Amino acid sequence: MMEFEHKPVLFDETIASLAIRPDGVYIDGTAGGGGHSYAIAQRLVSGRLLAIDQDPDAVRAAGERLKMFSCAQVCRGNFSKMAEIAAEHGITQVDGILLDIGVSSYQLDTPQRGFSYHHDAPLDMRMSQTGTSAKDLVNTLDWKELASLISRYGEDKNAVRIAKGIVQARAEKPIETTLELAEIVKRSVPAAVRREQGHPARRTFQALRIEVNRELDMLSEGLDEAFSLLSPGGRLAVITFHSLEDRMVKQRMASWCQGCICPPDFPVCVCGHKPRAELVYKKGLAPTEQELERNPRAHSARLRVCQKVEGLPQE
């Protein structure tokens, strides 16, 4: 097995944005290979770090990387159940939480995980390595369900063509591998799309991965869990890699930061609605040109950070 490596994007900016205190309590909800967790643990003296990941390969890799730190614990789970996992480890409040959303470099580059259309492998895409796979979806959903999924999560205007191409192909034989699916998608889209930069199957693979792992549902639940765990003054840092995730994070943080909701013509506030958080970066941070040269996969990344307002009643 290759080493579980995730090239952390916006690494320095993310660690700095957490404003880590030596005695603080932190959660890395997406431990991956342990890169972010290692940097957090290095800065702790009497504090604690809980590193969580749903991928058993990641848990093994992060556990190995963090074994020198007595302050760090690594456990398997999904960050959408963060509060429950934290409670099991005696943690009810934290000073900072990090979520690095999406598929890791290791998952993309390990052919047998079935995330990539660049390698031939079983059509899998399960981060947790359990439950419904991408193969199950492409061989059982009807064309309307497939088209809806590809349109919604892949934002692909050729979703109907692709869905019908998949159903037609599987009528002859089940679709088993990543390259089989990639070729079906390629055949299904117009010639002009095939000539465009990037593989025409990219959006379909993204859509299947999001559905297989319920990524947007998990993110929605995870954001609320994270905010509920933050101490006053605590920070939540979230790195996203596509517009659907980023939109959700942006809107959720905006809702926490919203103040008075009275009509603008009211002379005084009567709603009593106060902001529960404030943004650390108004528009979020994107990678620098230098980082993009080193890691082209970082091009769509965005870091958003908010800080819980002091003096709020605890949830």
Give a summary of the structure in a few sentences:
This protein is α/β, with parallel strands linked by helices. The chain contains 14 helices and seven strands.
Structure notes:
- This protein has 315 residues and is of the alpha/beta class.
- It has 2 domains: 11-106 and 215-308, Rossmann fold (3-Layer(aba) Sandwich), CATH 3.40.50.150; 129-212, DNA polymerase, domain 1 (Orthogonal Bundle).
- The chain is 42% helix and 14% strand.
- It contains 14 helices and 7 strands.
- The protein has a 7-stranded mixed β-sheet, with helices on both faces.
- Helix 3 (56-66) links the parallel strand 2 and strand 3.
- Helix 7 (143-154) crosses helix 8 (159-172) and helix 7 (143-154) packs across helix 11 (202-212).
- The radius of gyration is 21 Å and the shape is globular.
- The mean pLDDT is 90.
Widest β-sheet, arrangement of strands: 3-2-1-4-5-7-6
Please give the share of residues in helix: 40-55%
Order of helical and strand elements? HEHEHEHEHHHHHHHHEHEHE
Gyration radius (Cα, Å) is: 21 Å
Kindly state the number of beta strands: 7
Terminal-residue CA separation: 43 Å
Fold-level CATH name of the largest domain = Rossmann fold
What's the total helix number? 14
Architecture of the largest domain, CATH level 2? 3-Layer(aba) Sandwich
Note the main sheet.
Answer: 7 strands, mixed
Uncertain stretches of 5 or more adjacent residues: none
Number of domains: 2
Structural class: alpha/beta
Features of the shown structure:
315 residues; Rossmann fold; DNA polymerase, domain 1; seven-stranded mixed β-sheet
